[in-house]
Amino acid sequence: MNGIEQVMKAAPVIPVLVIEDDGEAREIASALVEGGLKALEVTLRTEAALAVIKRMNLVKGAIVGAGTVTNKKQLEESLAAGAEFIVSPGLTEPLGQAAIRSGVPFLPGIATAGDIMRGLDMGLEHFKFFPATAAGGIPALKALAAPFHKVKFCPTGGISAASAADWLAIPSVLCVGGSWVVPKGASPEEIHRLAREASELAKA
């Protein structure tokens, strides 16, 4: 099992986190990890994101990654902040090659057969299907998975607590990404409850 597969199998759901205040980072990470979700994707959508990664790394058991990484500079900044895996919304040659050279577990986004083929040419077999719902939902992913039987996916984008189990029932899906486990303004207790429910989602 390679590094990114270990991350994807850590729990059925990878929380996709958009955090404005790094002062909340450790409390949020603790609630998620104690709830059973260990792999945490901190998106680079806020000024605080790199500081959030550093703070979440202090939480025992947390596997903290950077998401929304779109170029080599962001990759380098994320690694310097301590990111243990990298998630991108897409896949370009410069970013893909830089991530591979770094040796960091890497989960690039794909939405088409061409995207997957470009990734396979780089030696990658694990992808984020993004934006999952807007890109055609479960029928689209099943259609893509059929000719690429070795490929494993983490669908992200538009997935909810109500739909997650349907996605996880697809054999090629190892986990899903979702933001519902950390609603804006949620208390640590609420986050813990949602994380516990998400961690108990079973693959069919």
Quick summary of this structure?
The protein is 38% helix and 16% strand.
Please provide a written account of the structure.
The protein has helices spanning 3-8, 25-34, 49-56, 72-80, 93-102, 113-121, 137-145, 164-168, 188-199, and strands at 13-17, 39-43, 63-67, 86-87, 106-107, 109-110, 126-129, 152-155, 176-178. The longest helix has 12 residues, at 188-199. 38% of the residues lie in helices and 16% in strands. With 204 residues, it is α/β, with parallel strands linked by helices.
Per-chain topology:
Layout: H1 3-8, E1 13-17, H2 25-34, E2 39-43, H3 49-56, E3 63-67, H4 72-80, E4 86-87, H5 93-102, E5 106-107, E6 109-110, H6 113-121, E7 126-129, H7 137-145, E8 152-155, H8 164-168, E9 176-178, H9 188-199
Parallel strand pairs: 1-2, 1-9, 2-3, 4-5, 6-7, 7-8
Helix pairs in contact: 2-3, 2-9
